[in-house]
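Record 1 of the preview.
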Amino acid sequence: MSGDKKLMRVAGLPAVSALFANAPDRVERLFFTEKMKTQTGSFTAILARRHKPYRLLGDEELERVAGSVMHGGVVAFAEPAEISDFDPILAAEWAKDGQPLVMLDGIGNPQNLGAIIRSAAFFGHKRIVLSDHPSQALPSDAAYRIAQGGMEHIELYRTQRFAAVLKQIQGIYRIIGTALEGGTAMNSLPKSDLPDAIVLGNEERGLPPATLKACDVIATIPGGGAVQSLNVSASAAIFLYALTAHRT
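->
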């Protein structure tokens, strides 16, 4: 990686711990408060061996470094994880292990992206594909913080011509689009011989028409009617749990 690549701020002990456990060589600097000194001892030892800086700071100074009050007492500055180009041929190899594929087309809020990544990691999903939609959020400080370490357990990919790519993997995956209403209840979908690819769309506009058209089936989450919809990250958690149940 180039040395001038923008560093991400990874805040909070769960996220920083996952970073050091999975990719310690990406960490360039570490800052922490007195109360986190014991918990960060193994991290500072790693950085010392690599001749990378670390420093104990007061709460207010760490808040300035973190750019947020939501820092959990420890902040690492690290090179971001790689986002690879999505390859449908490679995806065909992934399908052989029966693992579902998570695909995001226009999730705009980085906090929602982080929450979806956290849920995907929690349920054991391995990969997320991001579209080139103009609204699509990419990994950021906020996404890393909300993912609570999940970012280190998910491989991220990005693709252009999203709807066309969905058509390329039809027959390899069952493509499940998601919508607020008008689809089949997720818990009523029959099991498929193919692994599922779940496609989630923009918080306000949902999936673009071309993406919906490229899906094999459209799924919804039936509610009680008291409120119109769930936040997309909450919906994603339900869909991802349903995919996990479909595999068992």
